[in-house]
Model the fold of this input.
Amino acid sequence: MKNKSITYIQYPLILISITLCISGIRWLVSSEPWMLDQVANEERLQMTFDDLFIIDGNSTLSAYLTQIYRFLGLYVLGIGFLLLSFTPNKFLEIYIGKKVQLNYYLRDMIIM
Done:
């Protein structure tokens, strides 16, 4: 039974962490990372990025956006690797074992 519960937790955790790592790497290596979600950004701004960069006060906006998105990419990559570190079988066995042990302890406390 433990192996099935570990599998149910492990595979989605691996899938989510790999997806986060790939997204983080994409934001880190892209020359214009804000263009990766261009449609959503332009819909929210209600103008294109070309129109936004033409405005006089926005001469350094592209460098600022690159810096912000690279930090976001580094953050997402770190979260992905952190989640990936929680996927080994031994860690999940310890987690599930402690959870079962805590349930037995709480049940005994309620019965007393």
